[in-house]
UniProtKB/TrEMBL annotation:
Superkingdom of the organism of origin: Eukaryota
Database matches in Pfam families: EryCIII-like_C
Name this protein carries in UniProt: Glycosyltransferase family 28 domain-containing protein, variant
Record keywords, A-Z: Transferase
Entry annotated with the keyword Zinc-finger: no
Length: 647
């Protein structure tokens, strides 16, 4: 929290850079990513019950979300309190970019890309290292990593009131705005001194900054006391983590408060002053209280401006600009009839919303339920596939699989982990020049990294073994590490030459027609040897057919739409297509099967030991009888019927 107060924006301060804060935060993110993965596959620490996630709900700054979902082949849903999807309606809350010489709407849109790019610049290597080590996934390309959520169209649900910030028109159907998540008011019995203070006069103003760590809490306390004195209002000051007020006692003008639920307290006050967290903002507005926000970092300036735009509070007061005069002016605005009326209207609209129920509906709507239900017992979630008669795979739950194994209807070797949602993170190439250059640069970078590891890794292995064993074992470990480095170099060159470069050229040529507005056929995703051959055949057929026919039809189509000029445009498009489409077709005959072979080899070598063990443990776990009651005979009958139907 102290770091965030010192560094409210994207760029760290010089003080933080000198103090080594960035290195420590990168290490913290690395540990967090590892922990997020374990939370998806580790057993319950209390009961020992095995666990593997069937779906993931996460927020954007957790960073692990889509990567864990890709490793497990399960759906992921992003739920958050501030906008993280590009829009022209408002800027990214974490971006502070001057909009000189550019349309505000375009500047707003660009801020999201800037935030994604800068975040990836600082953490991309950490995330890719974690993908390789923990998830056994390919590293993401720099063109894919920053905007992966947008590229994959990951469903998002934003939990703020649409009455306060409506869904922008340029957000797609996969993005919802559902309303604030409001909890039921907790049971609370106020202490006698608080009850006495509230009943001794008109409703006071509330001031509190929660867990914010203030540099000078004494000065801020003096500002609050003087501003409320000038306005002639009483005040409740929440001491918070910064201990506002120090050891000063309460009196008839001010009450110093410890812990107290906002849901109860905000019904007793006339206005609220706080840091602008989404939860506190929602609680104040839902109770119809005019709100003054003193933002420190993160999304707090965003909410401050939103409240001010709605008329339910004054313009924000940045914490560094907090003075008696500014706070006095803000209090006078907040206590005015106009602000009170605006806050009451917002509260009425928000009272008609049910953010939690709407968010649950949004989450369920985007689940691929047809791929997640057990085909024998649809009330249970499927986690396994079993191939029947070599035709197709049945989706089965843990309980059904356990029953069929016990009845010797299937063998464990017949089981495959279900993939309810797959993600294609293959790099998209727009033209052969940039695609080929990018592929070559990537190969050179990977080769250089492997070359460096050939010298550095043996030294590290030698030092590590010297601590635990003899010099002989240390020397052997160093030699093995060096051999691994040489193997990595050979692998990089082989993959770059036989897979990456031909694929980049084939995809680049295939996508050139997009540059002049032509739709490119989707040939499917390469997942292994079989699909690689299918994609190559499709691309070959489409490439030659579309290239030849387009040479004739494009000029005709252009002439029909735009006359002579259209004919010339069409002739240009047709000529270009005659070159690039068959070119992609020929290169694809080598590139796509090679990509399929590579993916099949990688899948065979990939262990994903944590996932396999956890899923296997699910079958061996002796759950309580009440959890596994099932009609064994009916399961076997249904399995037999489905097996026969698959012939």
């Amino acid at each position: 929290m102290a770091y965030m107060v010192k560094n409210p924006g994207l760029m760290p301060s010089l003080e933080s850079l000198r103090g080594g804060d960035i290195g420590r935060k990168r290490s913290m993110v690395k540990e967090m990513l590892h922990g997020c993965w374990l939370s998806c596959v580790d057993a319950d620490p209390a009961s020992g019950a095995p666990f593997v996630a069937d779906a993931i709900i996460a927020n954007p700054p957790s960073f692990a979300h889509v990567h864990c979902a890709q490793a497990l082949s399960i759906p992921v849903h992003i739920i958050f309190t501030m906008p993280w999807c590009a829009t022209r309606a408002f800027p990214h809350p974490l971006a502070n970019i001057k909009q000189k010489g550019i349309e505000p709407a375009n500047a707003n849109w660009l801020t999201y890309g800037v935030v994604d790019l800068m975040t990836w610049q600082g953490l991309g290597d950490v995330i890719n290292g974690w993908r390789k080590q923990d998830l056994e996934l390919e590293p993401l390309n720099a063109s894919m990593g920053p905007g992966i959520n947008s590229y994959l169209r990951i469903p998002h649900t934003y939990c703020w009131s649409p009455s306060l910030v409506s869904k922008p028109a340029d957000w797609g159907p996969e993005i919802d705005v559902c309303g604030f998540f409001m909890r039921d008011p907790p049971a609370y019995q106020p202490p006698p001194d608080l009850e006495a203070f509230l009943s001794a006069g008109p409703p006071p103003v509330y001031v509190g900054f929660g867990s914010i760590v203030l540099e000078d809490p004494a000065r801020l306390t003096d500002v609050i006391l003087e501003a409320t004195r000038r306005c002639g209002v009483r005040v409740i000051i929440s001491r918070g983590w910064s201990k506002l007020g120090g050891d000063s006692p309460s009196n008839q003008h001010v009450f110093y408060l410890g812990d107290c639920p906002h849901e109860w307290l905000f019904t007793k006050v006339s206005a609220v002053v706080h840091h602008g967290g989404a939860g506190t903002t929602a609680c104040g507005l839902s109770n119809g209280r005019p709100t003054i926000i003193v933002p420190f970092f993160g999304d707090q300036p965003f909410w401050a401006n939103v409240v001010a735009a709605a008329g339910a509070g004054p313009r924000p007061i940045p914490q560094m600009e907090m003075t008696v005069e500014r706070l006095t002016e803000a209090l006078q605005f907040a206590l005015s009839p106009d602000a009170t009326r605006a806050a009451a209207i917002l509260a009425q609209k928000m009272g008609q919303e049910d953010g939690v129920a709407t968010a649950v509906e949004s989450f369920h709507r985007w689940l691929p339920l047809e791929k997640m239900r057990c085909e024998i017992d649809p009330s249970r979630v499927a986690r396994w596939e079993v191939e029947v008669k070599g035709k197709r795979r049945l989706r089965l739950s843990d309980t059904v699989v356990t029953t069929l194994l016990a009845e010797k209807q299937i063998k464990k070797d017949d089981l495959h982990a279900l993939k309810s949602k797959e993600y294609n993170t293959d790099v998209q190439r727009w033209d052969p020049l940039s695609g080929g250059a990018s592929s070559t640069l990537g190969m050179v970078t990977d080769f250089t990294t492997a070359l460096g590891g050939t010298f550095i890794d043996p030294f590290r292995a030698y030092k590590l073994k010297r601590k635990d064993g003899s010099s002989g074992s240390a020397g052997g470990a160093a030699m093995m590490s060096a051999a691994g480095g040489v193997g990595s170099m050979v692998g990089v060159v082989t993959k770059g030459t036989l897979v990456d470069t031909p694929l980049a050229l084939a995809e680049g040529l295939r996508n050139i027609p997009k540059l002049y507005g032509e739709e490119v056929k989707n040939h499917g995703q390469v997942k292994g040897v079989g699909s690689g051959s299918v994609v190559a055949a499709k691309n070959f057929g489409h490439g030659f057919y579309d290239g030849l026919t387009g040479f004739v039809t494009q000029p005709y189509k252009g002439a029909k739409e735009e006359g002579a000029l259209g004919f010339l445009k069409g002739a240009g498009k047709g000529t270009a297509g005659l070159i690039v489409k068959p070119g992609s077709a020929m290169l694809g005959l080598m590139a796509y099967p090679a990509q399929g072979v590579y993916k099949s080899i990688r899948a065979a070598r990939g262990r994903k030991a944590a996932v396999k063990k956890s899923k296997s443990d699910l079958l061996d776990w002796k759950a309580p009888v009440s959890d596994v009651q099932i009609d064994t005979r009916q399961v076997c009958i249904d399995f037999g019927a489905l097996s026969r139907a698959s012939k």
